[in-house]
TrEMBL record:
This is GTPase Era. The keyword Membrane applies. It comes from Ramlibacter henchirensis. The gene is era. It comes from the Bacteria. PROSITE patterns: G_ERA.
Amino acid sequence: MNPQEQDPAGPQEAGKATAAATQRCGVIAIVGKPNVGKSTLLNALVGQKISITSRKAQTTRHRITGIRTIGATQFIFVDTPGFQTRHAKALNRSLNKTVMGAVGDVDLVLFVVEAGRFTLGDAKVLSLLQPGVPAVLVANKLDQVHRRAELAPWLRDMQERHAFAEFVPMSAKNPKDIERLFAICGKYLPEQPWWYAEDELTDRSEKFLAGETVREKLFRLTGEELPYTSTVVVDKFEEEPSPQHGRFVKIAATIVVERDSHKAMVIGDKGERLKRIGTETRVELEKLLGAKVFIELWVKVRAGWADDEARVRSFGYE
């Protein structure tokens, strides 16, 4: 359900300071080309991993909402896929539609670029920003810039490209930078009741997070070998009572690839790679879900799925 369709959550019991303060709540879109660190930034802002990260481009494929409540302010972050400028497949059209939808109806946009760099891909995302919606330039990966003095002329150039409300040179891996970004974002959110309970971190289901975790391990363990047109479908997500573990979750998921050669790549020699994908997924999900997890993985070939509108939708893309 879209949070805008829900009844306002109303004041939360979060101590006298929060109760006395006027609540603020708003939506902040995190946008940028693939691989500029949007998902890493979202996870740092939420304080827990909810969006998958990988060096592989086009890792994030869905609009993922992360929620963080600090004091009287509730920040609702939307991590979007990187805007796709290559490959005119149905999957890419779906991803770009998600980005376009996210930037249109928000209170603030965080436009993420690599500090000191601006490419054609960045320019295409910048062209999507809507007039009237304040945008903050997040110059990410500052820790990788060796000559800080060169940033000043670059920032002036960026201001000429777009009337950014503020500039934030930072690293998503630096807690102090994240704290500073919260202080900046809070000013732009409207005074209104919170949409979510104080302790909620995401509006995505555990089943969705399970599928995303499998996909992350798939991309991390296959590297550049496996084309980005691979996906994961969760066939079963069942919770069973367990006197021994308290919580026991059974998951069955299918990794979908486009060719037999890709299937062999995912399975690996004597099934070792698929086994490792399953093991790393299980370990991470046990921490994320606070449960004992049993997971089964299968690999199936579906030739041309990424260019088939109906199949793209059937696999959960908007």
